[in-house]
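Intended use. Records like the one below are meant for learning the mapping from a protein sequence to its folded structure. Do not use them to infer anything beyond what is encoded.
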Amino acid sequence: TTYTKEKFVSDVNDIFSRNGIAFKLNDNGEIQRILDEELNNLIVSTTEPIEGILAGLLREATTKIKSFKIEERKIALERLWDAFERLKTIINSDKKDSANQLIEKVAKNNEEFKKILDTECENLSKVGNEFQIRHFETDKFPIDDSTHLDYLFFRMYALIRLLLTER
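Structure written out for the chain above:
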């Protein structure tokens, strides 16, 4: 009998599944991580069309976060932080003013929610500046644990998605 590509992919995926390995072999021969369904739905769902460079950064981030290689997932995190920085200038080139306008729109006159968003943006900006996400000076902290990387990725992605709803 002939051993087909489809049968090979199926057999490899069966081995992954039987052993509790959260990866799958796709039809192109690439191994991808299997994300929790809720997380996968978060990054698969689309919003209305967005500015080209921002869309490209988000597309690259959501593709690379599925990689089994931690180095690729680190690049995903970096691209997501780049997208956040770009998003903060989407209304105008004054980053602080543009970000404030975006937060105002999303908060919809709810001052307490605006405070939450302000704090979240400040905290995530601080993470981006203190950890090896966008800066790699010797005083920056590395992110080598996969669970920490995923936490920061999905935390930032959720914020970006929210901010994109009202731009």
